[in-house]
Amino acid sequence: MTSVLIADDHPLMLEAVAGLFSDTAFDVVARCQDGAQALAALERLSPQLAILDVHMPRLSGLDLLREVRSRNWPTRVLLLTAGLDSAPILEALKLRVDGLVLKGAAGDVLVRAARSAADGVQWVDRDIMDKVLPLLAGGETTPGLTPRETEVVRLVAQGRRNKEIARDLGISEGTVKMHLHNLYEKLSVTSRTELAILARERNLG
User: Fold this and answer.
1) Of 50, 69, 131, 168, whose CB is crowded by the most CB atoms within 10 A?
2) How far is CA 148 from CA 20, 132, 162, in A?
3) Are the beta carbons of 192 and 203 closer than 8 angstroms?
């Protein structure tokens, strides 16, 4: 079971999110109604995953993400946001958030995002990606990529998953993963979200 902490200052939202994880491989070990409660629970319980509202009293979800990163805690962090305000989203990406999901997303989407984040694979809602990527567009080019790697980067920037990339390029998912590993090394990025942002910055998408 994956231990998960959930924090939201709206009790109904808190219970709704917690309810999504009943009968799943997640064990909800704490439910917190503000950031200070969440920080204390994070320190005490060290859950594998924390699902946090971006906007909470006392300490925000972003504040908690900063704490997790600065203290080098192993907890993965997934943030829930009610809107598409660019500033907190960009800050969260800068801090290498493990997941970003809109509060209006379907319940099964949140559960999939939580599974992905818990497994160490960053998940960012496509609507969020569509919002922030144009803000980061630029004209720099990146030498040293093979034609196939460039195709993979372009498809990642379009929000495609590995299975879709494999289908479009006529290759296996394993080969896609190999290309992504090589791209992370060449471009000094650590997630597909960073890769997508870099692709747009350098006109590769």
Assistant:
1) 50
2) 39, 26, 14
3) no
Report CA torsion sign: 47, 49, 53, 55: positive
Choose from 66-75, 116-125, 133-142 the range with maximum mean pLDDT.
66-75
Contact 132, 174 (CB under 8 A): no
Q: Dihedral of CA 156/98/12/55: which sign?
A: negative
Within 13 Å of residue 62, how many CA atoms lie on the same side as its CB? 12
CA distance 31 to 41: 9
- 19 close to 28: Cβ distance less than 8 angstroms: no
Query: Which domains are assigned to the chain?
Result: 2-132 (3.40.50.2300), 137-201 (1.10.10.10)
List, for residues 135-168, the tens digit of each pLDDT value: 554 444 455 677 788 888 888 888 889 999 999 8
Q: Are 8 and 61 in contact (CB under 8 A)?
A: no
pTM, full prediction: 0.68
What's the mean pLDDT in 116-121? 91
> Are the C-beta atoms of 100 and 79 separated by less than 8 Å?
yes
